[in-house]
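Cross-check.
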Amino acid sequence: MTTTTPPGLGPGPGLGPGSGIDQQREGAAAPRDAASIEELLATLPVLAAEARQADERLRERVALLKQRRATWAEIGSALDVTRQAAWERFAGRARRARL
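Predicted model, tokenized:
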């Protein structure tokens, strides 16, 4: 079977240093690269709070799924992890939510 790589996506001219792709990456990273250590550190509490909120919403959703009798295999598949990994991460809270 032969596959065709679209122009500009495979190895070859146009993907080396100074190519449009490298310039786009550099341009996208420029604002963070220009930030001082203090500015970057100041963003950490906000990011950590967002991560905690997202984790709590995820745990609530998994608890709801377990109340509705979803299997650990279904939950794991949706999260792209094994059923065992899903169970290890969420089983304690899901059990308490059912009680």
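The chain has four helices and no strands. The CA atoms of residues 63 and 97 lie 6 Å apart. Passed to J.P. for a second look.
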